[in-house]
Structure formats: structure tokens, C-alpha cells
Amino acid sequence: MFGPSGAAYNMCVETSTRKMGGHARPRNVDPGAAMKVPFFQKSLTRRAFVSAASLSATVTILGGSRAVSQAMAQAEAIAELRAKAGSVRLRGPQQPATNIMGYGGTVPGPTVRLRRGQEFTARLINDGAEPTTIHWHGLRVPNAMDGTPYLTQLPVAPVQSFDYRFVAKDAGTFWYHAALAGQLARGLYGPVIVDESEPVDVDHDVLLVLDDWNLDDNGSLRDIGGSAASGQHFLFTANGLRDLAIPARRGERIRLRLINATVNRLLPVSLSNQTAWVVAIDGQPAEPFIARDSQVVIAPGNRIDLFVDIAEDVGDTVPIVIDSGGGQSVQIARFAIEGGASRNGSRGAPKSLPQNPLPSRIDLRNALRVQLALGAAPLPAKPSVERKKISNPKTNNQGTNVSWMPMDQLSSSLGAPLFSVRKDQPVVLTFANPGDQAYVIHVHGHTFRLLDNLDDGWKPFWLDTLLVGPQQTARIAFVADLTGKWAIERRSLSEPSRESLTWFEVS
Ligand SMILES: [Cu+2]
Fold it and tell me: Whose CA is closest to 483, among 504, 457, 452?
């Protein structure tokens, strides 16, 4: 049996049961696992929320019944996401606690687990002391549900609530987080898993939400203004825990979903010589390929889904290690290899995951082309600056001087969009980074292709978040197929407080 902490990666009873053909192992009905999904319920009345304590018993019972649990998964799910202060022992049970802000007062917040095509409502209740919103990172939701403060909604004041309602268009690994400046760093985030319509051929589905914490000796969070360049003094956690143990058997294929929930740390993750197939990037299926040296590098906000084929023997451990900078490595989790039944032997190359409804072609000849400079310093305290509207966007590159608005200075006066496009028009954005800082770019509402350097060919995967290194230029392409006002977020890897955004309009 596995205690609550051992089950911290295995968050959803009904899905585990489905994959295992109804023969649930003890771990799948563990109350600790059930507590991780305190909000799934059959929607009898939309306003009736069930408390975590009473629901956990219900979920545990349902775990044994395939039919009932599938019916539950297909019913409209409602999540109550309460942004509130909490106290968590990130360093371990005997260590000083850290005051965080989290959904439900925990970190990560509850796992939102949906089926593709499922309609979903999350009620954000602000039990904190400052305004907040939720951004659904990578999910292609209607503009009014995107959660960008002032651009798509007003921040939700303390004591107030807001209902986010959308259909899960794409299967994959996504996440949600508070969008106001500084709130992600304090713990206001959680994972979103959207299951494929058909079962995926793996033995287990394991989720690791990765984060770094700058703590002092008393366990208090240091000001995020500090430099994150060196990971020496940082604590690294997976699902809010240190060195999480994940039981596995030799011969098993494990789907490992990795989410980089840090504000601005690049995370090279390695799996000690196990064969790790990359099957999805930023939630979207990719043609499976084997990660070189069993390592993947995940930028802040990016997600990678791996199929890991366990080749070790009973009693062994497979460390999951990150490079924390300067050649230092930190073990953040491990597979603990157990005895018992296993397939033994290799399954061979995995099939691609089923495609999501993304455009099969992007007509770049008719694309609106806009260039954005990343290296320019953010504006000083003056948020409402008139920005240049591109008059002849097909031919000119005058978008270079972008006014990136600092996230901590957003207000209702967001000025004019950087560019405007008609719905369904292709867009090519060039991000030029002449400076010596790396930036992470996140385009809201749209999943994009990364174009090749020399021509308009593209890499064989989709992204919603992109790292642009120093002195690099990157070009992306997408179809602007969702109307509304969409943010392009920019975050510096070396200066955590420098979050900023610009925006475009699709009409
Ligand atoms: Cu995000």
C-alpha cells in the first residue's frame, strides 16, 4: 500500500481504473489519492459544491466501478478553486513550514482532470487579500475565460468569485495559474489533464509538477526579486514534495507528464538511462522520438509528456534528476522498482497519440508578418502608452519597437493592440532577441508552429510557450482562429520580476 504522499503523483481514480480495465490495484483506491480530486462530482445542481471530506469517500467507492466512474467523468465537472493562504512543509515533515498562496491552500492546487470535449466550469473564489484571476495555460478557451487581467476580465477582488467555463478542445497536459504579477511564484497554480477519447497504451499515468523555491532558513519565501541564475540555494519540488517515490515494475511503460511551473528556471530533466519517448510537447502530440541521453529540457510554462520504459530490476531505483545550474544536479523524484507481474521485454516504438483539432495547414503566403523585439527594456511606470498600429503589416517590420507592459503595472488602459487580424488569418511572428538575456514567450489562446531558420518549414511539433535565447531570433506561425484580445507574455529568465505583456486582437 502507498500512503498519501506516495500516491501524490496518481491523482485521478476514475482514469486509472479505466486504463486498467477495471482491475484496480490498491493504489488506485487509496484515500490519499482520492483526496487529490476533491472537486469531481456529478452535476446535480451546478451550485451545489461538495466538501473535500465528504467527497473523498464517494470517489473511493467509485474507484472500483468502471461504469459508474466513466459516467461521472462524462458528466459536467465543476471545480471549486479557492485562492487562499496556506502553510506547507516543502522541505519535509519535520522542517519549518512555508507560507504560500495556493488553490485550496495547497501547492500544487487540485488536478483538473477532464475528458476531451468535456464541458467544464471552475469557480474561482478569492479567499486571499489581493485581486486575482486564473489563466488556463495552453488551453484554447474562449477569450472571456483566458484570465488575463484587464485585457479579458477585471481582477477578481477578495471575497468575490468568477466562473470559468469552457470545453476542453484538446487532450493533453496543461496547467492553470494566477495571472497577476508575483502570484505564480507563491504557489497559485495547478495541473490540467485532458484525457484522450481512446485509452492510451501505458501501464501508469504519472504527473510531476516541478517547481523551485527560494527559501530562507526559517522556510519563508524570499522576495522573488532575487536572482535565480544559480540554483544553489533553491529547493526543488515535484508535486510540492522533495524526492517523491513512484512505484514501478520492470518492463512497464509509464506516461510521465512533466510541467515546469517555475517562474523563470530552465529545467533539464534526466531519467538515468531509461528509454524515454517524447510523445507530446505543450500538450500536443508529437511524432514519438527518443530523448537523447534520456534528457529533456523544459522551459518555464512548457510541458513534456514522455513514455518511459522501465528497464531496471526489483529493488533498484531510477533517479529523476534536474540540472539546477552550474553542473549541480538534484534528485527531484525516483522510480522505486518493485517486484510482481510485469510485461518484461520491450513494447517497441509507441504509436503517436491521437491528434487534436489543430489546423493541418497554415497558409504562410497570406500570413500577417510582425516582428517583435524582446530585448528592449520594459516601460517605466506609465502603462497607457500609445503603440504604433501596423498600417501595412504584410510588408513592414515596424512592430519591432514593442511596448511591453510590466505585469505589475497593468490597468484598464491597455492602449491599442500591437496588431489586429481577421479571424482565421495566418500569422507569422518574429521574436528578435538582440540582448544577453533569455526570454520565455507565451502566446495566449493559440498553439503555434516553430518555423525553421532558413525557410518557412516548421518543426514537427506544436508549442504554446517558447524559449528565445540571447542573440537568437525565432519565428512562429499560427492561425488566429479564436476571436478576442490575446496576450503575448514575456518573461526574463534572469530577472524574475520582469514579467510583461503585449497583445493582439482577432476579430
Ligand atoms: Cu501561463
Answer: 504
What separation in angstroms does the CA of 41 have from each of 108, 164, 386?
20, 17, 48
| Ligand 1 centroid from CA 174, angstroms | 9
Structural domains counted in the chain: 2
Q: What is the total residue count of the chain?
A: 507
Q: Which domain-ending residue is among 303, 325, 353?
A: 353
For 423, other C-beta atoms within 10 Å of its C-beta total 12
What are 422's three cell numbers? Answer: 481577421
Domain carrying residue 221: 198-353
- In order of 305, 347, 425, 452, 485, the CA distances from 351 in angstroms are 14, 11, 32, 26, 37
236 shares its domain with 269: yes
Per-residue pLDDT of 383-410, as tens digits, reads 444 444 433 334 334 445 678 899 888 8
Cβ-proximal residues to 366 (8 Å cutoff; 6+ apart), any chain: 425, 426
Three cell numbers at 485? 484580445
How close is the Cα of 149 to the center of ligand 1, in Å? 13
pLDDT tens digits, residue range 313-347? 888 999 999 998 877 899 999 999 998 766 656 78
Least Cα distance to 264 among 217, 308, 298 occurs for 298
Distance between Cα 177 and ligand 1 center (Å): 6
Ligand 1 centroid to residue 66 C-alpha, Å:
34
What is the value of ipTM here, to two decimals? 0.97
Compute the distance from residue 446 Cα to the ligand 1 centre, in Å.
Answer: 12
**3-state DSSP helix/strand/coil % of the chain, to nearest 5:** 10, 40, 50
225: left (phi over 0), alpha (psi -120 to 50) or beta: alpha
Task: For residues 373 and 502, state if they share a domain.
Answer: yes
